[in-house]
Design brief:
The structure holds 2 protein chains of 2 kinds.
Chain A lengths: L1 E12 L2 E12 L3 E5 L6 H8 L7 E6 L2 E2 L5 H4 L2 E4 L11 H11 L4 H14 L15 H10 L8 E5 L7 H16 L3 E6 L2 H7 L2 E6 L2 E7 H6 L5 E7 L4 H8 L4 E7 L2 E6 L3 H13 L4 E7 L3 H9 L6
Parallel strand pairs in A: 3-8, 3-9, 6-7, 7-8
Antiparallel strand pairs in A: 1-2, 1-4, 4-5, 9-10, 11-13, 11-14, 12-13
Helix pairs in contact in A: 3-4, 5-6
Chain B lengths: L2 H13 L2 H21 L13 E7 L6 H9 L3 H5 L2 H12 L3 H9 L3 H6 E6 L1 H9 L5 E5 L3 H10 L9 E4 L6 H34 L8 H16 L17 H30 L2 H7 L4 H29 L8 H29 L2 H18 L11 H6 L4 H13 L4 H29 L7 H8 L1
Parallel strand pairs in B: 1-2, 1-3
Antiparallel strand pairs in B: 3-4
Helix pairs in contact in B: 1-14, 2-12, 2-14, 3-9, 5-11, 9-10, 10-11, 12-14, 12-15, 12-16, 12-18, 14-15, 15-16, 15-18, 15-19, 18-19
Classes of the chains: A alpha/beta, B mainly alpha.
Chain lengths: 311, 461
C-alpha cells in the first residue's frame, strides 16, 4: 500500500525550475532513496512533502489525502531529519529532545520515557546532560535524527543525514536507519553518497536538475548501463602504439588514458584482460596494476548525465 | 505545542548565553555605577567637594569708617546736602559697621563656607609661595581701596569701584573656580546692598522732601544696609524641588537611564532570535511539526517581556541595595515595569520580524549600534534631556526608553498615579503598535521558506 504518492511536482524560484514534474511512490514499510548531486532538487522536494513549501504544481498524497490542502494530515505522523543540525547548541541533549517532543505534542511521563528510548537508539544516552555544543559532529547528527523520532513517526524523511561526519558515526546512523525500518518505519532517504543509497534502499530515484532521470531497484538501474565495465590498467609507460593496439582488441568500446593510466570500456571483461596483457608484452611495456570496475549507481548517473554524482 | 514551551526554551537559550547576560545585566550595572559616581556634580547630590584653603592678601591700609566717609563726602553734593547732625549720626552708625568683620567673619567665616573653604591671611610673597607649593587653591587679593570703597558704597550715594582679584592655582581644576564664585558672591551681595540703599534714600527723599526731616535719613540707610546684608548673608545648600517631590540624585537618575537604555538591548537581542532560528533551521523544523509561526512569534514576544522583567528586577535590586537608590512605591514600580516590558517586547518583536523578513542580521545590528544610541541620547540616557536643546526635549517622549525613564523618575519622585497615567498609556500604545506592525509584517512577508545548502545552490545557479 502506498503511504506517499508524489505526482507531477513542480516548484520554481523565479525563472529557475528547482523541481520539474517529479513523480514517485513510497510503499509502506520500505526505504526509498533519492539520489542526486547538490542542486538536483532533493531538498526542495522534501520541503514540499514536509509542508514547508507549497508546490507550484502537482500533488502530494499522504495515505490518499492531499497534504497541500490538509497539511495536518501528515505533520504529526512525519519525522523530518533536516540536512542542517536543527538543534539548540547551548542547551543539553535532554533539553533539545524534550523541546522537540513537546513540539510534537508529547508531555509528562510519555515524553520522559520516549527521550530515554530514543537516546538509547541513537547512542547518546550517557551524554544527555551535556550541552550539544560539546558533542562531536557525529553525536550532533545522531541527536538531529533522534529529535525526529520522539513521536514515533510513520514516515521518516532523512535529508543527507550523514554529511560531514566520520565513518564510524556514519555506520552507526546507517545501522540505525535499517533498525528503524525493521521496526516498520517507512523511510525516504536522500543522499549524494551512492554507497549509502546502495546499502539502504531497494527502490531508488535518481534526480538531476529537478527531474527524476531514472527509477527502479538497484539491479534495474545498473541494467541501464547494459553491463558496462571498466578495466583500468596502470602501465609503466604508454605510447601511441600501445593505445592503438588496445583500441583494436575485439570487444573494446572506448579507450581513455591519463598519463600511464589507461581505461578500457567493455562489455566483455575476462578475455579482454588477457588480450590487453598480451599487447603489453608484445610492445615490451610493463603492467603495474589492473582494476576491474563493475557498473554501479555512479556509472548509471554518469551514463545518464555525463557527469559525476559529486560534481 | 504550548507557547509556554517555546518561552521556557527561549529563556534557557538566552540565559545560557554569557554574552547576552553581560550585555543586558552586567553592562548596565557597571555603567550605572560609573556614571552615577562620575557625574554626581551634574545633579543636586550632597556636595562631595573636598575642603580647600585660600590665601587672603590685604593690600589696603587700615582706615576707620569716619575717615572713609570724610574722604568720600568731603566737598560733594551729598555731604553738603546733609545737615551736620545727620552726617555725624551717619558716621557714628558707619563706625559701628566693620567691613573687615563682615568680610572675614560673617562671610568667609560662615559655617557653610568654612565647610568648603578655609583661609589664611598672608603677604603676597607668602601667598605666592603657597601657590607654588600647591598648598593653596587661590589667592584672594583685597585691593587698596577695599575699605574706602566698601564704606563709600554702603553709606553714600556714590559708587566706588571695588575689584577683588583672585589668582588661581593652575594645578587645581575645581576649587579655584569655587573660590572665584565665592568672591563673586560677596561682590554681588555688596552690589545688592548698594542698590537697595540708593533706592531707600531716593524713596525717602521723594516722600519726605528735600529740606525737611533729614534726620531720619541716616536711620533709613542703616536699616536698608542691615536688611540687605542679613538677607544675603545666608549661604545654603539645601535643595528644594517643585511640588514637594523627592530630589533626583545622580545615582537614581543613572540607575533609571541606564536601565531604560539597556532595555533597548533586550529588544535588540530579541530581534536576532527569529532569524537565528531560521538560520539554524529550528524555525523550519517547528513548522514541519505543525507549530504555527504565530506561536513562534508570540513566544519571542513573551521571552523579551520576561527578559525585560528579569533585567528590571536585577537592576532595581542592585541600585537599591548597593547604590542606595529609592525607587518609590512598589505598586507603582510594578505597574510601570510591566507596561515598560510590554512596550519593549512589542519593539523587540517588530525588530525581530524586520530582521527575519530581511534575512540580514545587520538590520538588527544597525538598531543596536546606531538607532538605539540615538534613542538613548534623545531619551536622556546619557545626559538629562533638560540640558539638551528645546527641539530634542520635545522629541524625548517619542523613544520608548525616554517614556520609561520619565515614568520611572515619576515613580521615584513621588508623582501621583494620575501623573503616571500618560506614560503608562504611551508605553501600552508602543507595545500594541509595534506588536501590531510585527504581526502584519509576519503575516504578509514571513512566508515559510526552507533554503538548504542544496536548494541554495539551485537558487544561486
Amino acid at each position: 500500500m502506498a503511504i506517499l504518492e508524489v505526482k507531477g511536482l513542480v516548484k520554481s524560484y523565479g525563472k529557475l525550475k528547482a523541481v520539474d514534474g517529479i513523480s514517485f511512490t513510497v510503499e509502506e514499510g520500505e526505504i526509498i532513496g533519492l539520489l542526486g548531486p547538490n542542486g538536483a532538487g532533493k531538498s526542495t522536494t522534501i520541503s514540499m512533502i514536509s509542508t514547508l513549501l507549497k508546490p507550484d504544481g502537482g500533488e502530494i498524497l499522504y495515505k490518499g489525502t492531499d497534504i497541500v490542502k490538509n497539511p495536518k494530515s501528515i505533520q504529526k505522523e512525519l519525522g523530518i531529519v533536516p540536512q542542517e543540525i536543527a538543534l539548540y547548541p547551548t542547551l543539553s541533549g535532554y533539553d533539545n529532545l524534550k523541546f522537540w517532543g513537546q513540539a510534537y505534542g508529547l508531555s509528562g511521563e510519555k515524553l520522559k520515557s520516549r527521550i530515554l528510548e530514543v537516546s538509547k537508539i541513537i547512542g547518546i544516552d550517557e551524554r544527555l546532560k551535556d550541552k550539544v555544543d560539546n558533542y562531536s559532529g557525529g553525536m550532533k547528527r545522531r541527536l538531529n535524527i533522534g529529535a525526529a523520532l520522539l513521536h514515533e513517526p510513520k514516515l521518516l524523511i532523512m535529508d543527507e543525514p550523514t554529511v560531514g561526519i566520520d565513518p564510524q558515526s556514519r555506520n552507526h546512523i546507517l545501522d540505525t536507519v535499517l533498525e528503524l525500518n525493521k521496526s516498520g518505519m517507512t523511510i525516504v532517504y536522500t543522499s549524494h553518497y551512492m554507497e549509502e543509497v546502495e546499502y539502504l534502499c531497494r527502490n531508488i530515484h535518481i534526480m538531476d536538475m529537478g527531474h527524476v532521470i531514472a527509477s527502479g531497484t538497484q539491479d534495474e538501474l545498473v541494467d541501464i548501463v547494459e553491463g558496462q565495465r571498466q578495466i583500468i590498467f596502470q602501465f609503466e609507460s604508454t605510447g601511441q602504439a600501445l593505445l592503438k593496439d588496445l583500441k583494436e582488441i575485439q570487444g573494446v568500446d572506448k579507450v581513455e588514458h591519463s598519463d600511464s593510466k589507461v581505461t578500457l570500456h567493455t562489455k566483455n571483461g575476462k578475455t579482454l584482460i588477457q588480450d590487453a596483457l598480451n599487447v603489453a608484452m608484445q610492445l615490451n611495456v610493463s603492467v603495474e596494476s589492473v582494476e576491474v570496475i563493475k557498473p554501479n549507481l555512479e556509472s548509471v548517473f554518469l551514463h545518464l548525465t555525463g557527469k559525476d554524482l559529486r560534481d | 505545542m504550548k507557547i509556554s514551551n517555546i518561552l521556557i526554551r527561549d529563556l534557557k537559550v538566552l540565559l545560557s548565553d554569557k554574552k547576552t547576560l553581560a550585555t543586558i545585566l552586567l553592562m548596565p550595572i557597571i555603567l550605572t555605577s560609573i556614571l552615577s559616581f562620575a557625574l554626581s556634580g551634574v545633579f543636586g547630590d550632597d556636595p562631595q567637594i573636598p575642603s580647600f584653603q585660600v590665601s587672603v592678601v590685604k593690600n589696603y591700609e587700615s582706615m576707620t569708617a569716619e575717615m572713609a566717609l570724610d574722604d568720600a563726602l568731603n566737598g560733594n553734593l551729598f555731604g553738603d546736602f546733609l545737615p551736620d547732625e545727620t552726617l555725624e549720626t551717619l558716621k557714628s552708625n558707619a563706625s559701628q559697621t566693620d567691613i573687615e568683620a563682615i568680610f572675614f567673619n560673617d562671610f568667609l567665616g560662615h559655617e557653610d563656607i568654612k565647610a568648603m573653604m578655609t583661609y589664611s591671611i598672608d603677604t603676597m610673597d607668602q601667598a605666592k609661595q603657597k601657590l607654588k607649593d600647591n598648598e593653596t587653591s587661590a589667592i584672594i587679593v583685597l585691593p587698596e581701596n577695599f575699605l574706602k570703597a566698601s564704606y563709600t558704597n554702603m553709606f553714600t550715594t556714590y559708587h566706588s569701584g571695588l575689584e577683588i582679584e583672585v589668582i588661581r592655582n593652575p594645578e587645581r581644576s575645581i576649587t579655584p573656580s569655587i573660590a572665584v564664585s565665592i568672591v563673586e558672591g560677596y561682590l554681588d551681595r555688596m552690589a545688592a546692598t548698594n542698590i537697595r540703599k540708593n533706592i531707600a534714600i531716593e524713596t525717602y527723599i521723594g516722600q519726605v522732601g528735600s529740606e525737611q526731616n533729614q534726620d531720619g535719613l541716616d536711620q533709613t540707610i542703616q536699616n536698608s544696609i542691615e536688611t540687605t546684608m542679613n538677607a544675603n548673608l545666608q549661604v545654603s545648600f539645601d535643595d528644594e524641588t517643585a511640588k514637594g517631590q523627592d530630589l533626583v540624585t545622580s545615582k537614581s537618575y543613572y540607575s533609571v537611564s541606564m536601565l531604560t537604555l539597556f532595555l533597548l538591548f533586550s529588544a535588540g537581542r530579541g530581534s536576532y532570535m527569529l532569524l537565528e532560528e531560521k538560520r539554524e533551521f529550528t524555525y523550519q523544523r517547528m513548522l514541519t511539526a505543525g507549530v504555527t509561526k504565530w506561536k513562534i512569534l508570540a513566544g519571542k514576544f513573551f521571552v523579551i517581556f520576561c527578559i525585560v522583567i528579569i533585567q528590571l528586577t536585577t537592576l532595581i535590586l542592585f541600585s537599591t541595595f548597593v547604590l542606595g537608590v529609592s525607587w518609590g512605591p512598589v505598586g507603582q514600580l510594578i505597574l510601570v515595569s510591566a507596561f515598560t516590558a510590554f512596550g519593549v517586547a512589542g519593539l523587540g518583536s517588530l525588530l525581530g520580524v524586520i530582521t527575519f523578513v530581511s534575512e540580514k542580521t545587520r538590520v538588527a545590528g544597525l538598531f543596536e549600534s546606531v538607532i538605539f544610541q540615538v534613542m538613548g541620547l534623545i531619551g536622556g540616557a546619557y545626559i538629562p534631556v533638560e540640558v539638551l536643546p528645546d527641539e530634542i526635549q520635545l522629541l524625548s517622549k517619542i523613544p520608548i526608553n525616554g517614556l520609561a525613564l520619565k515614568a520611572f523618575l515619576g515613580v521615584m519622585t513621588g508623582s501621583s498615579l494620575n501623573d503616571l497615567t500618560e506614560y503608562v498609556i504611551l508605553l501600552l500604545a508602543n507595545g500594541l503598535i509595534f506588536g501590531g506592525i510585527a504581526i502584519y509584517l509576519m503575516g504578509r512577508k514571513g512566508e515559510n521558506k526552507h533554503v538548504s545548502s542544496d536548494q541554495a545552490q539551485v537558487v544561486g545557479a
